[in-house]
Design goal:
Mean pLDDT is about 85; it is low at about 110-130. The protein has a two-stranded antiparallel ribbon with strand order 1-2. It has one domain (about 1-250): 3 helical TM bundles of succinate and fumarate reductases. It has eleven helices and two strands, in the order H-H-H-H-H-H-H-H-E-E-H-H-H. A hairpin with a 2-residue loop joins strand 1 (about 165-170) and strand 2 (about 170-175). The chain has helices spanning about 1-10, 10-15, 20-30, 30-55, 65-75, 80-110, 110-120, 135-155, 175-185, 190-215, 220-250; strands at about 165-170, 170-175. Helix 1 runs antiparallel to helix 6 (about 80-110). The chain is mainly α and about 250 residues long.
């Protein structure tokens, strides 16, 4: 864990040496600063999930509608590439900070911390709630994301037959994105992995949204119950939306 933290901290160490950025990077490298940045990156990723789900729900509108949506995105060209690189950077920063804060918590853990943890309410899962599952679910989401990119963007999943998605037989450079999604999700082993990844995402969000708000100072007895319920609702609405797409894909296979 410590070795991984040191590797992930290399970019921050380099940025700290840049004139003018040093104080900001050092402030963000403290325990509190890391939690604030992790909260900001986490909420940014939540915004992406909302937009991504909204676009993918166009699958229910039919092939022409979804392909038009995909073509519109691809027509952005360099802007899309910049957005993807930025999104990747936000995800890596969020993951790196999660590993770092977990390592800090383990190093600082003592009897008082264990007593506090044992008194935590059951938020979404037993044994401390979803908060104790954040790193595990984050790793599962990372694995799912790698597979998702290989499936949909690179189209390199050996278990998927991309032939029916080719607009021109034998030409893999032009494919119907609608049919690509259908081919990927209609494959039962793929669908199972996708379900596990999305379920882990739902658990992660049920605690993550609430925790991010608290890290940003949105924490008051009058609001905490509302934040808890909103976080639960947001996590499972997002997960439910994506699971509905998996069900659509399996239905298309019949």
């Amino acid at each position: 864990m410590n070795a991984l933290v040191r590797i992930l901290s290399l970019p921050a160490c380099c940025l700290a040496k840049v004139p003018g950025l040093g104080p900001l990077v050092r402030a963000a490298s403290t325990s509190v600063g890391q939690k604030v940045v992790m909260a900001i990156t986490g909420l940014a990723l939540c915004g992406f999930l909302v937009a991504h789900l909204a676009g993918n729900l166009k699958l229910f509108a039919g092939e022409a509608e979804f392909n038009h949506y995909a073509e519109t995105l691809h027509s952005l060209g360099p802007l899309l590439a910049i957005a993807e690189i930025g999104l990747f950077a936000v995800f890596v920063a969020h993951l790196g900070l999660a590993v770092s804060t977990t390592a800090m918590n383990r190093a600082a853990r003592g009897a008082s911390y264990e007593m506090k943890e044992s008194k935590q309410e059951h938020f979404a899962l037993p044994k401390g709630g979803a908060s104790n599952w954040m790193l595990l679910t984050g790793v599962l989401v990372l694995g799912f994301l790698v597979m998702h990119i290989a499936d949909m963007k690179l189209k390199r999943n050996p278990l998927v037959d991309y032939g029916p998605a080719m607009q021109t037989p034998g030409d893999p450079s032009v494919m119907s994105e609608f049919k690509v999604v259908r081919q990927v999700l209609s494959n039962p082993p793929n669908a199972i992995v996708y379900f596990i990844g999305i379920f882990a995402l739902g658990i992660h969000l049920t605690h993550g949204v609430r925790s991010a708000c608290q890290s940003l100072g949105i924490n008051h007895p009058r609001w905490n119950s509302l934040l808890k319920n909103f976080s639960l609702l947001f996590g499972w609405v997002i997960a439910g939306g994506f699971i509905s797409l998996i069900a659509w894909g399996l239905g298309a296979a019949r």
